[in-house]
Amino acid sequence: MSTQTDMMERISRSTRSLTTGVDTNDVKNWVTIHIMGRAYEVPADLTIMTAMEFAGYKLIRSCGCRQGFCGACATVFRREGEYKLETALACQTRVEDGMSLVQIPFVPAGAASYDVAEERYAFSVFSKYYPEVDRCVSCNTCTKACPQDLEVMDYIQAAIRGDFEALTEGSFDCIQCGLCALRCPAEIAQYHVGQLGRRMYGRHGSPEPDHLRTRLEEIERGDFEDALNELVGASQEKLTKLYAARERESD
Amino acid sequence: MAEKTVITSADREFHERIVALSGQALTMCDQCGTCTASCPMINEMDVMPSQLMRMVQLGDAGVLETKTMWLCASCFACTVRCPRGLDLSKVAEALRQVTLRKAIDRIDIRQIPAEEFEELPQIALVGALRKLTG
Amino acid sequence: MTQDNDHASREERGESKTGGLKLPYYPGCTLKTTARNLEDSALAVADALGIELVELPRWNCCGVVASLTDDDLMRHMGPVRNFIRVQEMNSTGLVEDELRLVALCSMCFNTLKQTNKRMHERPKDLKSINDLMYREEDYRGEVEVVHFLEILREIEPERIAGLVSDPLEGLKVAPYYGCTLLRPKGIGIDDPERPTAQDDLIRLLGATVVDNPRKTVCCGSYQTDDNKDAVANLAYDILTHARAAGADVVTTFCPLCAFNLDNRQRVVMERHPDFEPMPVLYLTQLMALAFGFGEEACRFDLNYTDPREVLEASRLVREGS
Question: For the whole model, what pTM was predicted?
Answer without folding.
Answer: 0.88
